[in-house]
Amino acid sequence: MILVLGGLWIGQNINLLPVGASVNAPIYDELFRVLFSIGTILFVGIVGLVVFSLVRFRRKPGQIGDGIALEGNLPLEIFWTAVPAIVVLFVGLFSYDIYERMGGMVPLAHGGHGDSQATEERVWGGIGTAGAMQAGSEMAVLPLPVEVTAMQFAFLFHYPEGDIISGELHVPSGRPISLKMEAKDVIHAFWVPEFRLKQDIIPGQPTLLNFTPTRPGRYPVVCAELCGPYHGGMRSTVVVESADDYDAWFQANRKLPVSEA
Amino acid sequence: MTLTLPQQSKPPSLQPTGWLRYLSFSVDHKVIGLQYLVCGFAFYLIGGALAGAIRTELTSPVADFMPRDVYNQVLTLHGTIMIFLWIVPVVNGAFGNYLIPFYVGARDMAFPRLNAVAFWLIPPAGLLLITSYFITGAAQSGWTAYPPLSLTTPASGQIIWILSVLLLGGSSIFGGINFIATILKMRRPGLKLMQLPMYCWAMLGTSILVVLSTPVLAGTLILLSFDIVAHTGFFNPGMGGNVVVYQHLFWFYSHPAVYIMVLPAFGLVSEILPIHCRKPLFGYTTMVYSIMAIVVLGLVVWAHHMFTSGTPPWMRLFFTIATAFIAVPTGIKFFNWIATLWGGKISLNSAILFSCGFIVNFVLGGITGVALAQVPFDVHVHDTYFVVAHFHYIVYGGSVFVIFASVYHWFPKVTGRMLDENLGRFHFLLTFIGFNLCFAPQHWLGLNGMPRRVAEYDPQFAFVNQISSVGALLMAISTLPFLWNVFASARSGEIAGDNPWRALTPEWLTTSPPPVENWAGEPPLVTHPYGYGIPADQIDLKDASGSDLWSNGR
Amino acid sequence: MTSLSPQDQAVEIQEHHEESHPDHRMFGLATFLVADAMTFAGFFAAYLTFKAVNPLLPGAVYELELPLPTLNTILLLVSSATFHRAGVNLRRSDMQRCRRWLLLTAILGLAFLVSQMVEYFTLPFGLTDNLYASTFYALTGFHGLHVTLGALMILIVWWQCRTPEGRVTADNHFPLEAAELYWHFVDGIWVVLFVILYLI
Ligand code: HEA
Ligand code: HEA
Ligand code: CUA
Ligand SMILES: [Cu+2]
User: Fold this and answer.
1) How remote is the CA of residue A201 from the centroid of ligand 3, in Å?
2) CA–CA distance from B174 to each of B97, B166, B291 (Å)?
């Protein structure tokens, strides 16, 4: 009991993660807390059993006898098969639910730029924002499309709406963003730890990543796939700003008049 | 029964007999086993020195210790050497060759010559790999060699890497065939499958994985080398190829490979624990079934390494569930070991300490593994130090700890002398502390944004990286008492006698060190390899009933 | 009875001892062939995935001529049958016939290789033309390598059983039977390859 409560407490109260700055960060953290609690309970429980046995059943000086000839116990064995099975099943279902809420199960066959592109291009995978895709088509907030090009060793962000090319990703807080990513040379990955999101950028296979930033600030964009000597230096910044600041930035840098949708 | 070799034994061959036989094309399974062990350990020192270089580089956030491309070569070599030249050959080749013929009651492996060939593929492959660093520069695309990076980095190093991994894969396949044949076909008459020591089952499962998955890696690497040499376009997107297919094929081998690295270790622990706890191995039958379950499941979980590689959602879902379910059979084994400890008369010697260290470390690594299996979790930590921490907890905290435990356990068998226990416990303490100091902080690094395979990183992580490097230093130092212990004890250790542990498994029922054909007389028939313990009717079962076992833990 | 220590109960030394253990080489070979089959399985999987997800550039050839590969299939299937006859005759100790069938098998195998070469030279695409071409050559080439090896093995076995003192005799079946198993395996792979590569 103490173990369970203690594990739950540790899981809920010790935070090992950086600040969350996107819609799915809190969802992710929910999963993390559950996993951390379960993990702590299991780990401490098992270590406790091992240490206890080592101390309690150690051979005292002078003892030469054997232990007890105990080789099986059916109910016990069923018990310790069933418990992990249930735990694993629960964790699986739970993380499926989390994944769904993060938008991972949104079918990607017709990507976020469906309206602008007549030819149906195959998109290979990624994550949609929770409901952003559906919301985008039903409600007024269209996701902001950005095209990401990764190459050795830099990211380039292209805003089709204003034909802006930038080395930093500027996004308005609260609006869904839809990244369409393609690599020029080798595999890279787009990772923003504060968004809890990562997606490989694969040459020849465009991928998609949707998210909604929530917390203004500057966060690192990290390349997370070994791509050559300067892989470690392949970083950029995502600047999350209020809608007004973003507009100002957008107007200052745009090259094309925006056709209002 | 006399102590002379039986008349029918092989006529004296031309093989050298002194220590020279360890450098020869010997067909004696014990010699080959030791060849594997020593050769593997040499590569471990090299791989460890490379790890030292990695950790030195990472004490500062800028790339100052070595150039960036050299860093990539070093980490590629480190990963490749540790996996293909240390863990796989040692937990399979070394202990498998030494022990399996004893366990099945045979005088040698089924195909002794093939066995020697399998071993002798390893040193040239390893030397090839290492010299490539000095001559042309080693491969620098990681041990995973993902294209297109592996197609665009210098070709010579990559080709040598492929060649050497192909040789090692071939060695592993030959070994696997040999083990399967030996276990299934060479059992002494009267010995049933379900009477075999657990290590045999572990090796049977492992060898099945080797035979089914290694060839796929070989085929994949052949295609990769075509892409490099002949400019085909299998994995070259510029020519219409598909880079993700490589990842599928690679992990179809390399996920099972992790069980190839750990199942034999499970087997070894199952041998060590009962002897030093003076208790039967708990749950023999379920152990056997869970090994087979791990084999089957292990073949269908590979895409959990590719959750961010643009795999379709249904695939991620399937691989999440399949992966997480491996925790069930693995858990069965862990609980069985704990039950084996429970109520024993445990000698707290180095072998037991390392085995229990293994249990503790592996459980942590396994739990982070199950977390990694959850797609949404993995999306954040994939390719970060969290993954590095996960697998070092398993490969080092698991397999390497077991290798040490096994050395302490079987050293008297091999040399006839005991290792020094105090030095051994000291070695354990240093290793355990150093190891946890080195790898536990890496979980935090990964969660907070440090990607793996980088020579330079965000300065905010400098302090934690330095802690980790100190841990690595401790680990390096901990090798010294071990080496000293082994060399000193081999020459002047306490004489062990034939069976210092009072063990029942057949390798102990002969002289230590054993004669060339294992037993002077007939091979013994051991039908209860774990028949230790006071029979149940002679003791008070009250304090050993199942219920207080778990009411205590939860 | 209870005075027996557990050690004594567990260990009993049996008298019977079999010295020369039976021959497990066929078993080893079969295991090896499983491994070999997995290599092919990897290639097939790669081919099928490429085909399913990587659209070919316009102009890449997809339709293959069928007559030659069909002939090849027949050649191999017949050669399996002839090899079987050779084996049957060996077991009947009819070395004369055995050798004749072996030779026939080898000729069929070589004919397969020749016809495969003819196909290679008449194909409108080369190894590096496109993904499809590369996979096609990789698969058939790897199989062709197996056939070459198999044909060599047959010729060697044929050589070995030419005299009564040769290695392959009515008492030593192993080389011939190993080659036979291998040959059937190579045939089986071809059939799968034929279906996957040419028919679908
Ligand atoms: C010996 C090696 C070994 C072993 C045995 C394992 C075992 C496991 N591994 Fe690990 N893994 C690696 C070596 C290994 N791994 C390596 C080298 C990599 C990185 C490769 C690279 O990219 O370079 C990796 C990467 C890796 C990833 C990919 C991470 C990423 O790159 O994003 C994942 C994801 O699912 C994973 C999962 C697992 C799981 C679920 C297990 C399970 O088998 C663990 C099961 C065990 C337990 C769970 C503990 C005991 C069980 C209990 C006590 C029961 C109760 C428990 C529960 C109910 C949870 N591993
Ligand atoms: C399989 C087994 C295995 C083992 C045992 C180890 C052991 C160690 N590993 Fe390694 N590691 C891998 C497998 C393994 N590793 C793999 C597969 C990768 C991924 C590679 C990739 O990304 O492609 C990796 C990557 C990896 C990284 C990440 C690199 C990066 O991503 O940038 C780091 C960083 O800390 C690391 C550290 C260590 C350390 C400190 C040890 C220590 O435990 C080592 C301790 C041992 C010693 C220190 C030896 C002591 C002896 C001496 C020092 C004597 C001197 C030697 C001579 C004179 C010859 N390893
Ligand atoms: Cu781009 Cu790493
Ligand atoms: Cu895996």
Assistant:
1) 9
2) 12, 12, 21
Q: Which fold has domain A122-253?
A: Immunoglobulin-like (2.60.40)
How many Å lie between the centroid of ligand 1 and the Cα of residue A177? 33
- Round to whole Å and give the CA distance between B174 and B118: 6
Dist CA B509 CA B427 (whole Å): 29
DSSP class of B511: -
Q: Is the CB of B142 under 6 A from ligand 2?
A: yes
- C18 falls within a domain: no
Distance of alpha carbon A201 from alpha carbon A188, whole angstroms? 5
Examine the pLDDT at A134 and tell me if it is beyond 60: no
Distance, CA of B492 to CA of A148 (rounded, Å):
67
B223 to chain C, any CB pair closer than 8 A? The answer is yes
Q: Give the model's pLDDT for residue A197.
A: 85
Residue C46 located in a structural domain = yes
- Of the candidates A150, A117, A112, A127, the one whose C-alpha atom is nearest the C-alpha of residue A235 is A150
Task: Show me where the domains of chain B are located.
Answer: 25-528
Q: Contact, A186 vs B148, CB < 8 A?
A: yes
CATH number at residue C161: 1.20.120.80
> Which residues 53-72 of A have a C-beta within 8 angstroms of B?
53-54, 57-59, 63, 65-72
Q: Structural domain of residue C35, as residue ranges? A: 26-199
Q: Is the reported ipTM for this assembly greater than 0.90? A: no
Q: Which ligand is nearest to the CA of B79?
A: 2
Q: What would the mean pLDDT of B485-510 be, rounded to a whole number? A: 85
The label of the residue with tokens 């080898």 reads C106
In the reported structure, the alpha carbon of residue B372 is separated from the centroid of ligand 4 by a whole-number distance in angstroms of: 10
CB of B405 closer than 8 Å to CB of B350 = yes
B245: chain C residues, CB-CB within 8 Å: 46, 49-50
Expressed in angstroms and rounded, the spacing between residue B435 Cα and the centre of ligand 2 is 11
* CA-wise closest residue to A87 among A4, A13, A29, A27: A4
Q: Is the pLDDT of residue C169 over 70?
A: no
Interchain pair A50, B356: CB under 8 A:
yes
Total structural domains in chain C?
A: 1
Higher pLDDT, B316 or A234: A234
At B1 the pLDDT is 31
Lowest mean pLDDT among B20-29, B244-253, B532-541: B532-541
Residue in the structure block whose two tokens are 């797609």: B375
With respect to residue C119, please indicate whether it lies within any of the assigned structural domains: yes
Nearest CA to ligand 2 atom 27: B388
Of the partner residues B283, B370, B455, the one whose CB lies closest to the CB of residue A77: B283
d(CA B63, CA A234): 13
Neighbours of chain C (3+ CB pairs under 8 A): B
Amino acid at C111: A
Q: Give the best residue of C17, C26, C57, C135 to mutate against chain B (max B CB count within 10 A).
A: C17
In a domain, C6, yes or no: no
Ramachandran class of B16: left when φ > 0, alpha when ψ lies in -120 to 50, beta otherwise: beta
Tell me if B155 sits within 8 A of B138, measured CB to CB: no
Query: Would you say domain B25-528 falls under CATH 3.40.50.620?
Result: no
**Sign of the C-alpha dihedral computed for residues B484, B485, B490 and B491 taken in this order:** positive
User: Residues with beta carbon < 5 A to ion ligand 4?
Assistant: B 255
Percent with pLDDT over 70 in chain C: 80
Interatomic CA distance for residues B182 and C24, integer angstroms: 9
